[in-house]
Design a protein that fits this description.
By secondary structure, the chain is α/β, with parallel strands linked by helices. The protein has 18 helices and 15 strands. It has an 8-stranded mixed beta sheet with strand order 4-11-10-9-8-5-6-7, with helices on both faces. A 3-stranded antiparallel beta sheet has the order 12-15-14, covered by helices on one side. Strand 6 and strand 7 form a beta hairpin. Helix 9 packs across helix 14. The radius of gyration is 26 Å and the shape is globular.
């Protein structure tokens, strides 16, 4: 569709304003594409204001839009957006840095292999099941009426069972339906932490959560992660030192490291937070992304939490479609009312058609089949990516490959400029993610994150690694040339590595 739209944009230069374009049938024949592809391309051009569609008459080139004139003096905005009230001198100014989030949301051109994105490629999405669920939802009585602000009772009940288990501590009254996982994190942090206060986070951690925290005026404090998850000894010290009231974690298939919190540390996390009078925000984003053949998954922290310490985040987005932006927050006690109030103020409620579609999807046999096929596809893609790395970049293969999730976390050699590698990789036609944004401050070492769900298949994953290999070789060559140039610039009477000129006479 994107290629057809690009071709039609170029063709528009040959048409005068108001002139009729070829019929859809003619475009189907000329470009050898489906009628649906033509319809979508025309819709894209219409959305850009380039064409107008008249039912029964055809599609016509739109008149050129009049310019709005010279931009006025907007320099005053620099002052307005930087002028903070007096209390921010103590609490810290609110700021939104979406660069890291936008980097993973950017759609790569067709010629670039996507090892960067965090959403399923269309070939991995249950498109037929989604379409069928949407059609059935559209026929439900009341689909377009206003839903309860907390969400549909049936959907809340489903999430309660899905998170806490059939006999778990949660019921529908403990669940709040949200507009996806990112929206749930935003609601949780705004509701549970006061502006200016510290919030404990894993290090490294998901950049989207760091962006949410900083936009809410919070101060992220890192707690290191090792092969068994968050370091609970350092977590206790961080609570004591900061008096924080919130800790955000991903105990299952952590982003970006892929680690799973060990059984011993699971209970410790909740115990330490309870002793500190703090909440644990459990971001369970990868629950439906376990690989085929993986051991049984540990239950969520929220499933064994009678005291309401854990606020759980669950979403359908990662396992279904980036446009299935629907999730849930669970909480017990007064915290749920605080969460509810923040969400109502922000967005009123999640659209009912989306909730009805989600109910139809998760209640259908197609959902179970999709999850089974997805688990197999994730395993196969992970293995293909690992095999490709072993072939040309064996030193980057992680010691403990993940058993779930959609990415590999690669430790680069010390001294590597990860941003230069990312840029070189993009020039060679492969998009990868730099590791720096996953840390709250300076990263302790250079890393790359490689995703294996955004590419069409394993062939592209293998080619992507070959291109990355070339980018790393280019970076190494540039580094060596720079070192030789520095050496050549040394005075003749100074030995390489010697701090000063020759001593004595």
């Amino acid at each position: 569709m994107a290629q057809l739209a690009a071709n039609l944009r170029k063709e528009l230069d040959r048409y005068s304003d108001g002139e009729k374009l070829p019929s859809s049938r003619a475009l189907v024949t000329r470009y050898q594409v489906s009628p649906v592809t033509v319809s979508r391309a025309i819709a894209a051009l219409a959305a850009e204001g380039l064409v107008t569609s008249r039912p029964g008459a055809g599609v016509f080139k739109a008149a050129a839009r009049a310019t709005t004139g010279v931009l006025g003096d907007v320099s005053w905005q620099e002052v307005a957006l930087s002028a903070d009230p007096p209390h921010t001198a103590v609490t810290g100014a609110r700021g939104t840095d979406a660069a890291a989030v936008l980097a993973t949301l950017t759609t790569s051109p067709p010629e670039v292999i996507d090892l960067n994105g965090g959403y399923l490629h269309p070939t991995l999405q249950p498109e037929r099941a989604l379409a069928a669920a949407l059609a059935r939802a559209g026929r439900r009585p009341g689909t377009w009426s206003r839903p309860p602000v907390e969400g549909l009772a049936e959907l809340r009940e489903w999430f309660a069972r899905d998170i806490g288990g059939p006999a778990g501590p949660l019921d529908a009254s403990d669940v709040l339906i949200t507009g996806g996982g990112q929206g749930a994190l935003t609601t949780a942090l705004r509701a549970l932490a006061a502006p200016g206060s510290p919030v404990l986070v894993e290090s490294p951690t998901y950049p989207g959560m760091l962006a949410v925290a900083r936009a809410a005026g919070l101060r992220p404090v890192p707690v290191p992660v090792d092969a068994d998850g968050v370091r609970t000894d350092l977590l206790a010290e961080a609570f004591a030192a900061t008096r924080a009231r919130v800790f955000v974690c991903q105990p299952l298939f952590h982003n970006p490291t892929g680690t799973v919190l060990s059984p011993e540390r699971r209970a410790e996390v909740v115990r330490i937070a309870r002793a500190a009078g703090a909440f644990v925000v459990e971001d369970d984003f990868a629950r439906r992304l376990a690989h085929a053949g993986s051991p049984p998954l540990p239950a969520p922290l929220a499933a064994d939490d009678p005291d309401g310490v854990v606020v759980h985040v669950r979403s359908l987005t990662k396992a279904a479609s980036p446009s299935m932006r629907l999730g849930a927050l669970t909480a017990r006690g007064p915290a749920l009312e605080r969460l509810r109030a923040v969400q109502v103020v922000d967005s009123f409620f999640v659209p009912r058609p989306l909730q009805e579609t989600a109910l139809e999807l998760v209640g259908s046999p197609a959902w179970t089949r999709h999850l089974r096929m997805l688990a197999e596809a994730l395993r196969d893609r992970r293995n293909a990516l690992l095999a490709a790395l072993r072939g040309v970049l064996p030193g980057l293969v992680p010691d403990r490959p993940p058993l779930g999730g959609y990415h590999l976390w690669l430790r680069l050699p010390d001294g590597t400029d990860e941003r230069a590698v990312v840029a070189a990789a993009l020039r060679r036609g492969v998009a990868v993610t730099a590791g720096g944004p996953y840390f709250t401050a300076e990263a302790p070492a250079p890393h790359l994150r490689l995703s294996y769900v955004g590419a069409p298949g394993t062939t592209q994953l293998e080619e992507g690694v070959q291109r990355l290999h070339g980018a790393l070789a280019e970076n190494n060559a540039l580094a060596e040339n720079a070192a030789l140039a520095r050496h050549a610039a040394l005075p003749a009477d100074r030995a390489p590595g010697e701090p000063g000129a020759r001593h004595g006479s």
